[in-house]
Amino acid sequence: MVDGRAKAFIGLGGNFVRAVPDWTVAEAAMRRLRLTVAVSTKLNRGHLVHGEQALILPALARSDIDMQAGGRQSITVEDSMSMLHASSGLVSPPSEHLKSEVAIVCGMAKAALPDCGIDWDSFAADYNRIRDKIEAVFPDLFADFNTRIRQPGGFHLTIPPRQRVWNTATGRANFLLFSRGRRRLPGLRPRYASACDAAKPRPVQYDDLQPRRPLSRRVRGPHGGVHE
């Protein structure tokens, strides 16, 4: 997006331009795109930052009952403690024409890749088939995926670093350095990007250079700065 190679952006949920550390750069890049598509359960300020052409595709929320060709569906949810469990909506959707995120993505794939040999309709009809494929690719992590998400409390997704196990060449945690790009910082200040939690990864930038604003979620960064 920044260097102009990307022409379109399709995002599911959230506010992408404010979820990345350099949101000012992301906003400028987003506005240079030819097409932006937001698959969303509700409106947010990110919809005001878009390309030449923009679409907002409303989708079923977690609270909505999701009925597909294969019956009532359950999505998979991971909480901040790395527990995975099934989640099913309890209220009637606001419209019979409202589609789920899965149905929208499968519909896009079917239209864009008609001869790929993948039965996208089967995935949209029964989300268990998607989980079966995930289990086939990651058998150690997701063994009996569909069964375990439906047991009380779900199951814990093993994350090696949580047990101080680092699957790297050195056997230790490795850090990557990245360029700050065009932004100039006065003096030498610690600055890095991280993620808030395993359930909803979100890049966070820690430094004392961002303007203060009211935040609903706060963390303490270097130099005592409080950032989202």
In words, what does this structure look like?
The chain is of the alpha+beta class. Helices cover 20% and strands 19% of the residues. The two termini are 24 Å apart. 12% of the residues are buried. Mean pLDDT is 84; it is low at 195-228.
Count of separate DSSP helical elements: 6
Query: Roughly how much helix do the residues carry, as a percent range?
Result: 10-25%
Q: Assembly type of the shown chains?
A: single chain
What is the CA-based Rg, rounded? 20 Å
Taken as a percent bin, the fraction of beta residues is 15-25%
The chain-level structural class is alpha+beta
Mean pLDDT: 84
Major β-sheet strand ordering? 1-2-3
Strand and helix order: EHHEEEEEEHHHHEEEEE
Q: What's the number of extended β-strand segments?
A: 12
Question: Termini separation (Å)?
Answer: 24 Å
Shape: globular
**Sheet with most strands:** 3 strands, parallel
Report the uncertain regions.
195-228
How are the SSEs placed, and which strands pair?
Layout: E1 8-12, H1 16-19, H2 23-31, E2 35-40, E3 53-58, E4 67-68, E5 71-72, E6 75-78, E7 83-87, H3 101-112, H4 120-125, H5 127-137, H6 145-148, E8 155-156, E9 192-195, E10 203-206, E11 219-220, E12 226-227
Parallel strand pairs: 1-2, 2-3
Antiparallel strand pairs: 4-5, 6-7, 7-8, 9-10, 11-12
Defining key terms:
3-stranded parallel sheet; globular; disordered C terminus; 228 residues; 12 strands; 6 helices; alpha+beta; 20% helix
